[in-house]
Amino acid sequence: MLGMNAAPDTLAALRAELGLDQPFMTRYLGWLTGVLQGNLGNSYIYQTPVADLIGERLKVTVPLAVLATAMSLVIALPLGVWAANRPGGAVDNLASLYSQIGIAVPNFWVGLLLILGVALGLGLFSSGGFPGWGAGFWPAINALILPAVALAIPQSAVLTRVTRSSVIEVVNEDFVRTARAKGLSRARALWRHAVPNALLPIITMLGLQIPFLISGAVLVENVFTLPGLGTLAYQSLSQRDLIVVQNVILLFALIVLVANTVVDALYAVIDPRLKGRL
């Protein structure tokens, strides 16, 4: 932080300011007490509370993550179900091609293509930056649409394959054949009976994708110059603002834990038979 040629007395003063002259357990317990009280310390570079920095960046990252997840579900569920409805058909082949391309292509490269083709080429959406929520709802959402698409494509590609496999497996169950024998059309039997019973693997995969969404946001936010948590983590790492990096990683871990807890709770909602087992 002080450079390679810092004087010993300057180094000692900085170590005392950062608390590095104290024993390890004293520093750790002090940090843990601060976290439990909501005090995450002050940024070395910005000289502001880390909690304020993170809170400001969450206003960008949370809407971006929610929008990307919603887009991935809107793409993956219909495409996966339609592919399962006619295995080997045109929609199934299209879904398979989409899944392979979506999994193979990095999200930051998708973001660059969207900037060149959609934002700069067609002028439909913002190519980067974030005007803030004070500028209005649509200008803010307009700045998040292309980054959300870049994050959603790899997620929806995986989710499409899982949806297809899960629905095909359920379609062959006896209760679906019974519904068809009672006179239900293929489409109604599929959406009314097969899809609800195929949701468990889909929800599981959605929960597992949360860490990949977070890691992808680090790159995508930098491509679109969004002032979110990913950009904060990258800038803090490059500037060696380790207290910010430490707390951002702690928050990322907490988000993953909460997401997986919510997924476990959804199991009992989707399948009441699991209530006694959770």
From TrEMBL:
The chain crosses the membrane at residues 62-84, 105-125, 137-159, 198-220, 248-270. This is Peptide/opine/nickel uptake family ABC transporter, permease protein. The lineage of its organism: Bacteria, Pseudomonadati, Pseudomonadota, Alphaproteobacteria, Rhodobacterales. SUPFAM superfamilies: MetI-like. One of its GO terms (molecular function) is dipeptide transmembrane transporter activity. InterPro entries: BPD_transp_1_N, MetI-like, MetI-like_sf. It is a multi-pass membrane protein. Belongs to the binding-protein-dependent transport system permease family. CDD domains: TM_PBP2 (cd06261). It comes from the Bacteria. It is found in: Cell membrane. Keywords: Cell membrane, Membrane, Transmembrane, Transmembrane helix, Transport. The keyword Metal-binding does not apply. Residues 58-267 form the ABC transmembrane type-1 domain. It comes from Ketogulonicigenium vulgare (strain WSH-001). GO terms for cellular component: plasma membrane. Coiled coil: none annotated.
